[in-house]
Amino acid sequence: MKHKKLAKELGLSDVYAIATGAMFSSGFFLLPGLAAAETGPSVVLAYLVSGIIVLPTMFSVAELATALPRSGGTYYIIDRSLGPMLGTIGGFGSWLALVLKSAFALIGMGAYISIFYDVNILYVAIFLTIVFGILNIVGAKETTWLQKVLVAALVTIMFFYIIQGVFQVFSMDVFAVAEKQFTPFFTEGVFGFFATVGMVFVSYAGLTKVASIAEEVKDPDRNIPLGMFLAIGTAVVVYVVGVYIMVALLDPAAFREDLTPVATAGEVFLDWLPEPGGLILVVVAAVAAFASTGNAGIMSASRYPMAMARDKLINKHFATVGKLGTPHWSVIGTVALMLFFLLAFNVAEVAKLASAFQLLLFGLLNLAVIVMRESKIAEYDPGFNSPWYPWIQIIGVIFSIILIFEMGILSILFTVAVSAASIIWYKYYAQDKVERQGAIFHVHARLGENKDQGLEGEMRGILREKGLRQEDPYEELVSRADVLEFDSETDYDTIFRESAECLAEKLSLSVEELRELFMTSEENTAIQIADGVALNHARLKEDISPELVLVRIRDGYSKEKINKRAKGKSGDGKLHSIIFFVSSEANTGQHLRILAHIAEMVGTKNFLQRWVNADNEEEIREILLRDERFIKITLSPDNKTQQYIGKMIKEVSFPGQSLITIIRRNGEIKIPHGITVLQEGDELSVIGEVEDIDEVKKMLKE
Known about the structure:
Blueprint: H1 12-21, H2 26-29, H3 31-39, H4 43-53, H5 55-67, H6 74-82, H7 84-113, H8 121-138, H9 140-170, H10 174-181, H11 189-201, H12 220-249, H13 252-255, H14 261-269, H15 277-310, H16 328-344, H17 347-353, H18 355-374, H19 391-404, H20 409-430, H21 440-445, H22 453-466, H23 474-479, E1 482-486, H24 492-507, H25 511-519, E2 527-530, E3 533-540, E4 547-557, E5 567-568, E6 575-584, H26 588-602, H27 607-613, H28 617-624, E7 630-634, E8 659-665, E9 668-670, E10 683-687, H29 690-701
Parallel strand pairs: 1-4, 2-5, 3-6
Antiparallel strand pairs: 2-3, 4-6, 7-10, 8-9, 8-10
């Protein structure tokens, strides 16, 4: 069996480990001394400024990855926003840049291992590439387990290192240290400082690579932004404080030529450890850093060819997901490309050339947010919204352009060459196979041009996969929904009128206003969303709570009776359910999420059979409720529920935000109020968050 989609197995700790691991390697263990040679003690400020400059892109990627949680990250986002040609550039460029960075990281790992063992650095890098490749084929969860171990070791040692270093610095005369080690602060002036900012900026570039595994993240709306924020916080602290310690303790001339400044500084303040304890700690941290970058790099990089193959930009075999649930051909292709660069080139030099391309991608990602928002696609529903839009994105684009020119002519030429080769590939291989145009065409549509209808459908599928958010009142909506019963001979006007009367009472509207809302707009016609189920939905300009009416026709209802408005699925089957749903235009995202969830619920196995056979209104509602957020309780003097008998609802306390939504008493449905007194034999329908319902179940079992 081959999996079409990757399993959602990654949580917050996995996202944090991948994002953090992708940022630590040469940027901390090799680069500080070289960067200090360009600007002097102000290298500390350069690392801080670089961490601030990466924030616009971080905010943009967090928004885009929660709206478009698909494998391929940068590629997928750029393709769906700016179109497939730029997507091809982003895909090939991201893959190439990450492969080079990962290969370079494993070279660095081999270099640190060689401190203790006489090994061939290249052979070590080749061996590690193959090992990490095999691990990535075995499974994403196994890969991220190793990643978490590596990052945990790295972060623990680094914070120990920093604490020891800070104590060492502050045990000295701080003012004397500042005068001796930090004066002059800008040795090469303002231009030298900003050139250094461009040099160290790429140390944070790995942060955004987590978007490439977004499809595999559980609850991406929460875990992707939070994991990225925690990762950048960790990186900035370690980089800035760590480099400050190096500048404060090392001889300036020696520091600027030192390729292992972390180890050199550690020898100053970790001398209290048994020899060579301090050096071993630093080497372990460095090996963990380079290994985590290499491991996370292979995992993230392999998702680019997979996503491009799904979209027919490269051979379809790269999209294959094997029995182990991983894109094995994409992993193999990524590993093969890494081995090619390791064997054929000086990886360190080629990796530097990719820096300008990374900055180009950062600029495109910031532009992508502007395009997606200005496209006004209703289905664009990010779980995280970038603050200070659009100014933060404009600043991100400007910074990217400025820093590209700080990268040097060779790096710029490399970027131009990769872009040109990608365009040629797209024109001669992929263009005839691709029909999508990207969200940029929706911006054109606002100017009277065509738009990409397929993108809207694709994003509706994403909404359905992501599911409801915690704040979406789905359970409350279903619990208070009116349930109407009709036979097959009833005309549709009667069904609509009685449904509209139920909604009109709750929404303070007339039946005629609702008729006009539902029946005149082409968008709001009845849509068959599953076998035997039609949905009619509309949105009001007023800020209202969403409302639902559930209609059941046991013996089936002819579609033709709905004035041929039941668009959608074809077939001769009759309708047994018609659902009317109304919400506010002020919350389009919530409206679409609820629609998507209703479609998911009615599409489940045996839904129609359960719907037709339900004995009463309560059972009909329960069919649409999520089992993990719902529980039915019958009050009895023989169990724990006896404590509720004779009490008013306002006196009953359930865990968290759990609510009694329906009471069934003597075969009749009662709507609960605070002063409603509970009686023996009452059947209570209780809804709440998953953890709250779990607590209710435990409480009743004790």
